[in-house]
Design goal:
The complex is a heterodimer. By secondary structure, chain A is an all-alpha fold. Chain A contains 16 helices and no strands. Chain B is α/β, with parallel strands linked by helices. In chain B, helix 2 links the parallel strand 5 and strand 6. The chains are: A mainly alpha, B alpha/beta.
Chain lengths: 329, 381
């Protein structure tokens, strides 16, 4: 918890412009109207809050998916949320006739991408829910989810193939993710929906613990498995869906963080895992954001590249130690 | 593809090693016989009965690449020793252009009728050429990987003018060459000096055997540009600071200080905020750093493709608080834009840099040109 607060503060202190610590403090606590104040209060603070929220949301939904599918490689996007969102965005950026260039889409405002991404992710989620209510075996659902993602990926590829360079670039930049482009209104919506998702996750602790022992066991202790699945899926789509809508598909955090937490707490009890994941998710995302700003240089790295570079070693490590891990699922 | 490149490479090596003059330096600019004064990406050598064209480093990031073409008068005998693959017969009667930026130069030489195909006819600004598209005189040949090769074969142009590594890597170049169609690569957009870019009209002069006309258009442009530049230099007292572009998410792609637009701003009596940076491509900078520097800007130019203040706010509300935004010193280069979204700034703008210079100078120093109405630029309200 303390580490999280320290990281949040560090994230505000470090950015692509170097501002001395005293300036930062002055900007936060006094109303100087200086340009540093604008940078701190309107760029870094919202970005740090976004990073925190995104980290929490993706890690939690990753944890839920790993538990429900009892698969260490599951993440927030196994159900096709990110590919659904990509499809929505691809239709907006790439689908318009080649007469419009990327900039004019840009000028339509960032809401259009948010709405498109929500719509895409939502449509896929509804589809998954319908399939989920028909399919008994959870593994079948996992495979269907992956197949669906690949199919959508193919549609996006076709859209990319028929678009020009400007549009492609706009789309590619979207897929790299971004934390710093939310307006205050959007940040509020993100905070509200993620808080709702977090509360739902905390309430679902018992369900998750039961599911960990297998659906048959869960059924035997009187759990309505279909209802439980539905509840967890909607929780994940709220968490991962809103993040993807506002920040683009941010990879690996959702897969990696739950594993880090399991290693640290040496447990598979969700009463510990959920709060652990919330804290660790926020912390890892804040670290990623600090790194992506490359403090001291004018350049920045796309956030998605940073989270992947942090996430990949963890995932490899998980695969190498898989035998030990299979006990956790 | 690689094999063709290899062949080309061998051809160039052989050609270079044949001539003692070239042994010292592979790419001698402005050397004896070269009719090009400012442009750095191509050279023209007038030979006995034919012209040698060299396109130098024709794509972004190319080093030590030189492509040689021989322009031979139609009907005359092929001079001995020239690789027939690299021979282009001139004057051209039919040309396909992969970029609309080349159309203005062809039109300036009065050769509009030779344009039979364009990649993306939607991007044409010239009303006359749009009429030709409607009449069916200009075909849309598709673009990049979706190039309509069968249509190109049917049109059978004397030459296809391409640009950039994109065209090479898309792989269609090799296929078209294999089918016997001549291709020349145009690198005018890589010229970082406005006059160098305009000098590419000389390439068209050679392709249409209208060298004298091309030279006179270019010389008039140089004279006009220099006159304006001197007048601006002598009469300005301040150099207003200029911000360019528009952010995308939290990244702001910044044109480097050695770019075309940076040179124009400096010649127009302005100070581009990143004038001291050097790069061959736009640099992805973090939005907060750009914003902080942008607070010093007096003017904001080339703001993506926006046409109203509202559109800027939609991109990022925080941009409203930039002093240049509050002062309303916003000007965009999309004054001449048609309903398809084609922008004449990119079409005739490269041929008439003195008009671009005058526009920017009028924006930065209105007192210098009280009677000049902006042509390519417009104020954003």
């Amino acid at each position: 918890m303390i580490i999280l607060v320290i990281l949040l503060i560090l994230d505000i202190f470090f950015g692509s412009v170097s501002i001395s610590a005293s300036e930062v403090i002055r900007a936060i606590f006094t109303h100087t109207n200086s340009s540093f104040e604008t940078i701190i209060m309107r760029f870094r603070l919202p970005k740090a809050l976004t990073a925190l929220t995104v980290g929490v949301a993706l890690s939690l939904s990753g944890l839920q998916m790993q538990t429900i599918f009892r698969n260490p490689m599951a993440g927030p996007y196994v159900l096709g949320i990110s590919s659904g969102a990509s499809l929505g965005v691809a239709f907006v950026i790439l689908g318009f006739s080649s007469g419009i260039n990327g900039d004019s889409i840009n000028a339509l405002g960032n809401w259009i991408l948010v709405v498109a991404s929500w719509a895409g992710a939502g449509a896929i989620m509804i589809l998954i829910m319908i399939i989920s209510s028909k399919v008994k075996d959870i593994m079948t659902l996992l495979i269907i989810g992956i197949m669906l993602s690949s199919g959508i990926g193919a549609v996006v590829t076709i859209l990319q193939y028929f678009s020009n360079e400007t549009m492609l670039k706009a789309y590619v930049i979207w897929t790299m993710g971004s934390l710093g482009n939310l307006t205050e209104g959007q940040l509020t919506i993100l905070l509200i929906s993620v808080s709702a998702g977090v509360i739902m996750s905390i309430l679902s602790t018992k369900i998750l613990n039961a599911l960990l022992l297998g659906e048959n066991y869960a059924r035997s202790i009187g759990l309505n498995v279909r209802f439980a699945r539905g509840a967890i899926f909607s929780c994940t789509s709220i968490l991962a869906g809103s993040v993807t809508a506002f920040c683009g598909p941010i990879g690996f955090i959702g897969i990696a963080v739950p594993h880090i937490v399991r290693i640290i707490f040496k447990t598979s009890d969700h009463r510990l895992l959920i709060p652990g994941t919330i804290l660790m998710g926020g912390a890892v995302m804040l670290i990623s954001d600090i790194i992506s700003q490359l403090p001291g240089s004018e350049n920045v790295l796309p956030i998605n590249a940073v989270t992947s570079l942090i996430g990949i070693p963890v995932v490899i490590w998980v695969i190498l130690r898989n035998r030990k891990f299979s006990g956790s699922f | 593809m690689n094999f063709l490149k290899f062949i080309l490479f061998i051809t160039i090596i052989t050609l270079l090693s044949c001539r003692s003059r070239d042994k010292k330096n592979d790419y001698i600019f402005h050397d004896a016989g070269n009719n090009i004064e400012k442009a750095e990406r191509f050279a023209l050598y007038k030979k006995d009965g034919w012209t040698e064209v060299r396109i130098i480093n024709p794509w972004q990031g190319a080093t030590d690449v030189s492509q040689v073409y021989y322009l031979v008068k139609r009907g005359s005998k092929l001079p001995a020793g020239l690789d027939p693959e690299s021979v282009i017969f001139v004057p051209l009667k039919k040309i396909i252009c992969m970029s609309t930026t080349h159309l203005a130069m062809i039109s300036a030489l009065g050769e509009q009728k030779s344009i039979v195909g364009v990649s993306g006819t939607n991007f044409i600004y010239s009303p006359e050429l749009i009429q030709n598209v409607k009449k069916g005189l200009i075909a849309d040949v598709g673009y990049e990987a979706n190039l309509n090769k069968e249509l190109i074969l049917k049109i059978a142009p004397d030459l296809i003018m391409i640009y950039g590594i994109g065209s090479e890597s898309a792989g269609y170049v090799g296929k078209i060459k294999e089918l016997g169609t001549k291709i020349i690569i145009n690198a005018d957009y890589l010229e970082t000096d406005p006059l160098s870019r305009a000098e590419w009209i000389k390439l068209f002069g050679a392709l249409y055997c209208k060298e004298t006309l091309a030279d006179s258009i270019f010389n008039a442009e140089v004279a006009e540009y220099q006159k304006l530049k001197t007048y601006i230099e002598q009469n300005i007292t301040t150099r207003p600071k200029v911000l360019l572009g528009l952010p995308f998410n939290d990244t702001w792609y910044i044109s480097p200080g050695n770019s075309f637009i940076s040179k124009l701003i400096s010649d127009a009596g302005g100070e581009y905020l990143w004038m001291n940076t050097k790069s061959s491509v736009s640099m992805p900078y973090g939005i907060e750093g750009v914003y902080l520097k942008g607070m010093k800007a007096d003017f904001w130019l080339n703001i993506g493709s926006v046409s109203s203040k509202n559109e800027i706010s939609n991109v990022d509300q925080r941009l409203n608080d930039l002093p240049c935004f509050k002062k309303g010193n916003l000007f965009n280069n999309n004054n001449r834009i048609n309903t398809n979204g084609a922008n004449d700034f990119w079409e005739s703008g490269s041929l008439y840099p003195h008009l671009l210079l005058k526009d920017i100078a009028t924006i930065l120093h209105p007192e210098l040109f009280t009677d000049h109405a902006l042509i390519y630029y417009r104020k954003i309200y």
